Every structure is written in structure tokens, then in C-alpha cells.
Amino acid sequence: MKPIPAVLASVLLGASSGLLAAERAIDTSRSTLSAVFTQMGVPVEAPFKRFSGRVDHDPAKPADAKATLDIDTASFDIGDDDYNAEVRKPEWFDSAHYPKATFTATGLKPAADGSFEATGTLVLKGRKAELKAPVTVKAEAGGSRYSGVVTMSRKAFGIGDPAWDGTVEDPVKIKFQLFVPAAR
Questions:
Q1: Residue 102 sits in a domain of what CATH number?
Q2: Model confidence pLDDT, tens digit, residues 66-114
Q3: What is the pTM of this model?
Q4: Which helix (H) or strand (E) holds 22?
Q5: Can you tell me the distance from the alpha carbon of 150 to that of 109, in angstroms, rounded to the nearest whole number?
Q6: Please, which residues bridge with residue 134 across strands?
């Protein structure tokens, strides 16, 4: 078996001046979602090619914000067809039985530096865990970009054959750059 990392998770949300409360779809053509893991002491970053989601928030009421991010687990692309096939197997994402992972966030907590913390539940490979994701928001032409990095445990979700514990480290970082068009 080839060593393969795995993960997922994700995150979103934020508040930005000038946005109205309205549920809006993430523009995936202008967004990225990737996992960063360490394999044999070397950091590796690989993207999820297919994901979708929605954000609903009012900048005046960040505690009422809601977001959902659905990730196609079979779209994790390590850049090699054999590795990509491996990561879909039961020891890793088990994409045949668990084709998607979902992160659902409710509420934003403002941080001292002007960013936010989104708290939500990640459902991955039939398991659930709470994640807290730091989120920064930057206004861009036509919408806002929600960015951050959250660290999660792949072992908490049963991702990875235990035989690879010395090869692929447990903590995995999920990096996201999600563009959400302005409400119309």
C-alpha cells in the first residue's frame, strides 16, 4: 500500500461590512480547499477538486451566521492516479461508502484581531467532531473572501491505516480560500 494522507474539513463564514443578510452559494471557481499533511517528514499540500457550500449571515448579527460546506471525498487530488485511488479506499476516506464530508457552522465569535472564530461540526467517514476555525474576511470586487487554516486529527475520523502512523503524521491542516458573491 502506498502511504496516503487524508483529511478534510473545512470551514467558512465571516462578516464583512456592506453585505446584507442572505444565503449565498460559494463560488467554487474562485475558491480553493486543500489539506496539508506531513508524510515522511515532508509537508504535502493537495486540493479537493469538488466542493460546494452556502453562507447565511448578517454582519450586524455574527452570532446568527450559518454555513455549510460539502466536500467530495473522491476529489482529493494528490497528483498521482495511484495515490488518488489509494486515498479513496476504506482505510482512508472510504469514498464508496462516504462520498462526502460536511462541515456545518453556526455562529461567529469576533476575535481581538478583527477576525472571527467559526464553530461547527465536521461529519467525515461516519464520525462527527466539533472544529473551531479562525476566519478572516476580505472584501473583493463582487463579494468577500473567507480565509483560514484549521488543524484537525485524521485519526479522530479513522483516516489512515495504523501501519502508516510513523509515515503520515496525525495532525492535518485544512486551508481554505472561499469566495462568496455579494447578496443582490
A1: 2.40.128.110
A2: 999 999 999 999 999 999 999 999 999 999 999 999 999 988 899 888 8
A3: 0.84
A4: strand 22-25
A5: 15
A6: 117
